Amino acid sequence: MDAVDDATPVTVYTRPGCPYCMKLRFGLRRARVEFHEVNIWNDPSAAAFVRSVANGNETVPTVTIGEVSLVNPSARRVRELSQRTA
Q1: Which segments of the chain are extended strands (E)?
Q2: Tell me, what's the pLDDT at 74?
Q3: Is the peptide bond before 61 cis (omega within 30 degrees of 0)?
């Protein structure tokens, strides 16, 4: 997958069957934003991280772009921030 030039690494925290996660993944792929995906049901430390930035909830998708964390962002917002923080 080709990344946006000079993009900051993007991590997308997801869980199986989440329609919002599927929509975000599709949008990021369409925008050619490279990302690393982490299933919070398979990674307890990832689930704990998501709870820490989502008011104690396991709300997905949660995304990190460098030091920035976003809960349920749009693909457009992720792309904009990944380019700005590069």
Answers
A1: 10-14, 36-39, 62-65, 68-71
A2: 97
A3: yes
* Residue range 10-84, CATH number: 3.40.30.10
The phi, psi pair for 13, rounded to 5°, reads: -90, 125
- CA nearest neighbour of 63 among 51, 54, 73: 73
**Domain locations in the chain?**
10-84
Please, what is the angle between helix 19-30 and helix 75-84, to 10°?
A: 50
Model pTM score: 0.88
**Beta-ladder partners of 63:** 12, 70
| Residue 85 reports pLDDT greater than 80 | no
- How much is the mean pLDDT over the chain? 91
Contact by Cβ (8 Å): 3, 81: no
Chain centroid to CA 6: 17
Question: Quick one: 16 exposed, middle or buried, by C-beta within 10 A (0-12, 13-18, 19+)?
Answer: exposed
